[in-house]
Amino acid sequence: MAWYGGITVTKFTCSAKFNYTDGSPYGNNVAELLSTLTGPSTGVVDNWWFRTATVGDAPNQASGLAMCFADTPDSDPSYCHNCLTYFMTSRHLLEACDHSRTFTAVSSDGCILRYADEPFLGAAAGDSSGHELVKNSLVNTSYGAASLDARRALLGQLAEKAGGDPMRFATGSQGFMVRGVWHVMYGMAQCTRDLHASECTGCLVDLLAVMYRDVSVTNSTEASVMGFSCYLRYQMDEPINVAGMALPPSQPPPPATHPTGSASPSTGGKMTTVLIAAAAVTLLITATGV
């Protein structure tokens, strides 16, 4: 667990090095693909920089995608571009994945880059376990079970909602009362937009399981988990700034008095039994080492 404090941290996986050469058919296709995916934007970061491309034909076809997370700052159009191009300029990544035919990476600055020598769009990266980036605020809450219940309900619901959204994105909030004081937890969930609905929800449930088992996240006022194909985040008492979207209005406490420590949902509905079961299975698999 870490709070990166402005330092860029990456998690990545790639195939064996030196599996193609510059100027070869596949080398030319990869070069064109990466230029297309990471080329500079002419204005503000539109579409959260979600881009997909396929160059060439089998057996030298190169397919890829790039995306920045929705809470990436949009005041500077170069922010997302710099995040993506870092993958091609980092000495550490170049040494580890030099001329690899497949590559997947996520950056703590808020972006994903993925390419391969065969089609993969529509399916989540299946090898992200242990490669997630986990961040927290290092500020612990004193809200106890009420905040845990609110987080479980909110993020579980957002995982399901994002899977059914064409943008593969959802945001919402959950209010709860602690010792007579009203608090609001804000959250967002996002997947790469190529994923099928079930793939997106499943990816987010896996990240939710990471939050459950990471003890330093349990009582944090703010935390996020970034995976190779999806992203989950929450924070207390302050709306999440999403690029291109207005901040939600402040959420007032309900007119009725709730018992101390109880959670009051504001996004409607409850986390489905399927999501709870999926997260439980994920935790069981992790605990037993299967």
TrEMBL record:
Q: Report the residue ranges that make up the Gnk2-homologous domain in this protein.
A: 8-120, 129-239
Compositional bias (Low complexity)? 258-267
InterPro entries reported in the protein's UniProt record? GNK2, GNK2_sf
Note down the stretches annotated as region Disordered: 245-267
Q: Tell me which Pfam families the record gives.
A: Stress-antifung
What keywords are annotated for this sequence in UniProt?
Answer: Repeat, Signal
Q: What is this protein called?
A: Gnk2-homologous domain-containing protein
